[in-house]
Amino acid sequence: MKKTVACLVVVLLAATLFAGCSIVQSPALGLLYTDVEAPVAATSNPNATKVGTAMCESILGLIAVGDASIETAARSGQITKIHHVDHYSRSILGIYGVYEVRVYGE
């Protein structure tokens, strides 16, 4: 029984320590789960009729791939005048993380 409890404590401690391995940028972070949408920037351009997105992903903080630049998001939505930019982030147990940039404009 003591061995099982000790093993459980070690696993929980390791999970806590390694939870930061795949943290994505976010205004609020959850240790177990994060699902947040927040603003990045705005301009004085009056209309936002189109939306473009770009994203990157991270696995265990060991592998990170993607292009979450504003330029790529604007290009994907065929946007030439940016109205505002938001970002979305999700992290699950520090194992898998997603960061997405959303550009609104015309």
Number of domain modules:
1
Strand coverage percent = 35-45%
Secondary-structure content class? alpha+beta
Radius of gyration: 18 Å
Helical proportion, percent range:
10-25%
Oligomer: single chain
Q: What are the segments in which pLDDT stays under 50 over at least 5 consecutive residues? A: none
How far do the termini sit from each other?
Answer: 64 Å
Main beta sheet, described? 5 strands, antiparallel
Shape: elongated
The ordered H/E elements are: HEEEHEE
Compute the number of helices. 2
Keywords:
about 110 residues; alpha+beta; five-stranded antiparallel sheet; 2 helices; about 25% helix; elongated
Explained architecture:
By secondary structure, the chain is α+β, with helices and mostly antiparallel strands. The protein has one domain (about 1-105). The chain has helices at about 1-20, 70-75; strands at about 35-40, 50-60, 65, 80-90, 95-105. Strands 1-4-5-2-3 form a 5-stranded antiparallel beta sheet. It starts with a helix and ends with a strand. The mean pLDDT is about 80.
Summarize the structure.
This protein has 106 residues and is α+β, with helices and mostly antiparallel strands. Helices cover 23% and strands 42% of the residues.
